[in-house]
Amino acid sequence: NVGAGEYYESGGTYLYSSALTISGAGAANTHVYASDMGAWLTIQAPDVSVSEMTIHAQNDRAFDVGGIASPGTTTFTLANVVINGPGNMYQDAGSLVRVQSEYSLVASGVTLQNGMSSTYGGALALTNGSSATLSDMLFDSNSAANRGGAIYANYANFTCTDCTFSGNSSQYGGAVALDYAELTASGGTFSTNGADLEGGAIYYISEPSTIDEDVDPNTTGLDLTNVVFSANTSNGAGGAVSARDGTLTLTGVTFSDNWAKATASEDGTGGAIRSWNTSLTATDVTLNNNIAATN
Fold first, then answer.
1. 52: which of 103, 236, 286, 290 is 20 to 30 A away, CA to CA?
2. How many CB atoms lie within 10 A of CB 214?
């Protein structure tokens, strides 16, 4: 256990084989400052759990999970943790947390905020056959230069239950970008997220990308139930959601006050949803005051 106080870490820790549980005295009481280059914890061991603390990821990500698959159960658990950015701004995907290589992330009551990535996944990246179960999480004010202001998933699958995405930004997928990946979300809100190009809240494309092409998660798709999208914006297509190919299923979803802005050369398309060559199923969907602007 880690007691209340402030802890300054000048070097990263590598976990290769042994299970480990780290528990603080609450996010308001235990603060870890990871200031050097290199993740605070690089995890290639099974059954690692971190809870009840705030981690300030100042120059690199807080957690780098995977890279090689370990034998046995490979689950990384986060509970009641706050991670502050900016994190890993200048390297590969996942500024605050990266999970890859068939590892599974289970996170509940976690806040990821102020992460900044020069590539993909301002807060979290799931790649290379990984998976995640996310519940009661807050993704706030994260940004990525290319895709997935909060979450980037490539050859991965994950679920979100009652998660909140607010104030995140990127070129594609202000909050979430899915490249040949699968997301099932139930409850929760996407508000005031923004994309410079497509998908103010979510950008979904169901085709192989250039990253981790050798791993196939068997299914791709975007399935949303009782999710609320409000005041998200894009400069072009899909004020809230932009989907290309694949399967999009909407049940009890509300879209209000989302905006696909016009650019200098093109009108905005899909104030709420822009769907291109996608198998779309919509049931009990509410559309209110969404705008696709024209020049």
1. 103
2. 8
